[in-house]
Amino acid sequence: EVQLVESGGGLVQAGGSLRLSCTVSGFTTDDYAIGWFRQAPGKEREGVSCISRRGGRTYYADSVKDHFTISNDNARNTVVLQMVALKPEDTAVYYCALVNLDHPVEKWNDENEYRYWGQGTQVTVSS
Question: Nearest Cα to 79, choosing from 16, 32, 126?
Fold first, then answer.
């Protein structure tokens, strides 16, 4: 059974930092990518960032590319999303998801490409 477990959300003041982790288990190959998505109240879910396990290729949404960093900790099967200079508009439930790279993926932020999802972790940034 494939499982993705997020951790690291919480409440932080504007300008603060948080570190989200996504630990993967049960996936039988290393040819996949992990995406982070978020959904704010009343808004659609949006792609935030993505990283491939092999090679560590990264992608970012324009809204976060200057203050979020995604990285692999392959020894722990974990992907980390480091978030600094947080803003109230970063408030959302953050989800990590896994896409199998056994086929071409046109858009890293197309949530329909991702088959496995974590349960989500709340990030709240107060002004």
Answer: 32
In whole angstroms, give the CA distance from residue 123 to residue 103. 32
Residue 4: per-residue pLDDT: 98
pLDDT digits (tens, 9 = 90+) for 60-84: 999 999 999 999 998 999 999 999 9
Half-sphere exposure of residue 118: CA atoms within 13 angstroms, side-chain side: 26
Note the pLDDT of residue 36: 98
Looking at the DSSP assignment, which residues form a beta bridge with residue 52?
33
- Give Cα separations from 52 to 56, 71, 85, 97, 123 (angstroms): 5, 9, 25, 12, 24
